[in-house]
Design a protein that fits this description.
Strand order of the largest sheet: 3-4-2-1-14-13
CATH class: Alpha Beta
CATH architecture: 4-Layer Sandwich
Order of helices and strands: EHHEHEEEHEEHEHEHEHEEEE
Active site: 113, 152, 250
Family: Belongs to the DNA repair enzymes AP/ExoA family.
Structural class: alpha+beta
InterPro entries: AP_endonuc_1, AP_endonuclease_F1_BS, Endo/exonu/phosph_ase_sf, Endo/exonuclease/phosphatase
Number of strands: 14
Site (Interaction with DNA substrate): 250
Site (Transition state stabilizer): 154
Number of helices: 8
Length: 259
């Protein structure tokens, strides 16, 4: 007998800050089946118990080894995975705490925080190489089971995916060589679930610059995604952007899948 499960992804821009500001209560009230967090900026020992080990969840973390308060991903799952692992097998990426993979009975879930491409620790060439290595990693795993990949991918794919495409054509996050990697993922058989289900929906964003008050004006970017390999797409019933949830410069995204 099949059932529906909800998977939520959220770049929290500091998990301790989200907890301190009271926004962690949103997760506690929603109680998704699986919760994928990016940019935790913390290691497990720095977290309060209710964040480290929420009741009813198995918790998994990958934290930055190069400096504290940087990068990091976590997954909270009501369903215990068959196995799990950190990283993609490339040390310079794995030491930044950017990927967690959980193997479930019907699919493999990959939670990703892509380098922004605009910093000393994650410059553009580093970011572009990460896209390539991640795709290679996903393709290897796909021979075992269908793939669901979620995270802050740090690029808007098409003009519809950001409020001001013309002004950002030469800016990191909307460069042609970055956008081409989203094309490559799609050509490899991974579906952008939100755009597939909402092909013409404009003004649907997941990130806004906090300093300029962009969220109030909805001057945003859609840079957070759920990708699914084509063979599991018939099982995905919804793909949503939860733009009414605050606490970060990103909002959560979700899919509902029948397993």
């Amino acid at each position: 007998m099949s059932k529906e499960i909800k998977i939520i992804g959220w770049n929290v821009n500091g998990i301790r800050a989200v907890h301190r500001k009271g926004n962690w209560s949103w997760f506690e009230s929603i109680q998704p089946d699986i919760f994928c967090v990016q940019e935790t900026k913390a290691s497990p020992e720095q977290l309060p118990e209710e964040v480290k080990n929420p009741d009813g969840y198995h918790s998994y973390f990958s934290s930055s080894q190069i400096r504290k308060g940087y990068s990091g991903v976590a997954v909270y799952s009501r369903i215990e995975p068959l196995e799990w692992r950190e990283g993609i097998g490339v040390e310079k990426f794995d030491e930044q705490g950017r990927v967690l993979t959980l193997h479930f009975e019907k699919f493999i879930l990959i939670n990703v925080y892509v380098p922004n491409g605009n910093s000393q620790t994650a410059p553009l060439d580093f970011k572009l190489e990460f896209y390539e290595e991640l795709l290679n990693y996903m393709n290897k795993l796909r021979s075992q089971s269908p793939i669901i990949m979620t995270g802050d991918i740090n690029v808007a794919h098409e003009e519809i995916d950001l409020a001001r495409p013309k002004e950002n054509e030469k800016n990191v996050g909307f460069l042609p060589e970055e956008r081409a990697w989203i094309d490559a993922y799609i050509q490899a058989g991974y579906v952008d679930t939100f755009r597939d289900m909402n092909p013409n929906k404009a003004g649907a964003y997941s990130y806004w610059d906090l300093k300029s008050g962009a969220r109030e004006r909805n001057v945003g970017w859609r840079i957070d995604y759920f990708f699914a390999s084509q063979e599991i797409m018939p099982k995905i019933k919804k793909s949503e952007i939860l733009s009414d949830v605050y606490g970060s410069d990103h909002c959560p995204i979700s899919i509902t899948i029948e397993i």
